[in-house]
Design a protein that fits this description.
A two-stranded antiparallel sheet has the order 1-2. A two-stranded parallel sheet has the order 3-4. The longest helix is centred in the first third of the chain and has 40 residues, at 2-41. By secondary structure, it is mostly helical. The protein has helices at 2-41, 46-55, 63-96, 104-107, 113-122, 135-167, 169-177, 182-185, 232-240, 262-271, 300-306, 324-330, 339-343, and strands spanning 99-103, 129-133, 312-314, 335-337. The chain contains 13 helices and 4 strands. Helix content is 52%, strand content 5%.
């Protein structure tokens, strides 16, 4: 029984070791390619990746996973071949090296000279031998494993530094470890302020969000990156109305941490609070269907609901993505009309 347990533990450690080696090699070989692909395709950072997967991919087009796999397939094949060669080298190299040949009965500590003599006289048979690992063999194999591990870490390090520079991984980690008193000292909860409507008649409130619209579509002389302005109508609207920007020309506002992806921007713009909850430490993301999304936060929807407004959230995508539906349902009791609502209209078919 002890032998079986010992063998099982060795097998588990062996698989675990080469699993780590495989992950390091996959990252070292395909990490840069995957980082460049993600940066070009999405342009977001590690913070957005973490929160998107944490909130779930419900309503999202997961076809991008196949695209990522296709992009990295040649690199993944190379890494797989290398791992298999390392395992093969391990098996072949240490099958005999570092071992000594002993008789089977000797290795078991049951060597009986008289019994062997009688057996030999009765029937001439060659004694059976087997290979047993020596102490220096264990040391040699350990050096081999450590060397391979260090090489893989050495190869993966520059790829990680590159990914960290592009995706800002370390910035995300630092922000999670840091503590700020800005909300303790500066934030004023809307629930603590008396809000009154001085008009006899309520006015309609319309807020328009444009997904993935950015100032780089403007011409270079207006602060963008195009030779010709691709959004002249928006530029005219900006000139005729109040616009907020962090520089001259057609510029957008500065995006603080926790406001740069869909759900984060919706929450931040309606509450003044970034989407920067401590994942795993509370249920503010509403992962549990019974738990309220951003519990304790007061949004514009909450305020307008108390003022008697009938509210509706209209979007051209799946409202369940990023828990947008949950946000607007639980903060303002919005009616939701999304892409699938439109597809269910009479005459559309679905």
């Amino acid at each position: 029984m002890k032998k079986i347990i010992k063998t099982t533990i060795k097998s588990v450690l062996y698989v675990l070791y080469y699993g780590i080696i495989a992950l390091l090699l996959y990252f070292a070989v395909a990490g840069r390619t995957l980082t460049d692909w993600y940066d070009v395709t999405f342009g977001t950072r590690f913070r957005e990746i973490v929160y998107t997967f944490n909130l779930g991919l419900t309503g999202a087009d997961t076809g991008f996973m196949n695209e990522a796999l296709q992009e990295c397939r040649p690199d993944l094949i190379k890494a797989t071949v290398i791992v298999l060669l390392l395992i093969l080298a391990d098996v072949i190299l240490f099958r005999r090296v570092g071992r000594r040949k002993v008789r089977e009965d000797e290795s078991k500590g049951q060597h009986d000279v008289q019994g062997e003599t009688i057996k030999h006289e009765a029937k001439e048979e060659k004694p059976k031998y087997r290979w047993v690992r020596s102490k220096w063999g264990y040391v040699l194999r350990g050096v081999y494993h450590v060397t391979i591990l260090l090489i893989c870490i050495f190869l993966a390090k520059p790829v990680y530094l590159y990914a960290d520079q592009v995706l800002e991984v370390s910035d995300f980690v630092r922000s999670k470890l840091a503590y700020t008193k800005i909300y303790d000292e500066k934030y004023v909860a809307p629930s603590s302020v008396q809000i009154q409507n001085t008009r006899k008649r309520k006015r309609n409130v319309i807020i328009v969000y444009m997904e993935s619209m950015e100032t780089t579509y403007a011409s270079k002389n207006l602060g963008g990156y195009q030779n010709h302005n691709l959004m002249p109508n928006l530029y005219n609207l900006q000139q005729e109305n109040i616009a907020f920007g962090d520089r001259k020309g057609m510029a957008g506002t500065h995006n603080p941490s926790g406001t740069t992806w869909t759900t984060a921007s919706l929450l931040a713009s309606s509450s003044g609070i970034p989407f920067d909850f401590n994942m795993g430490m509370n249920k503010n993301e509403g992962n549990d269907n019974d738990e309220k999304f951003a519990k304790g936060v007061t949004t514009l929807g909450d305020i307008l609901e108390k003022q008697g407004y009938n509210q509706e959230f209209i979007c051209g995508s799946d409202s369940t993505f990023g828990r947008k539906k949950k946000l607007f349902r639980e903060h303002g009791n919005y009616k939701i009309f999304d892409y699938y609502s439109a597809m269910r209209l009479p005459g559309r078919g679905f």
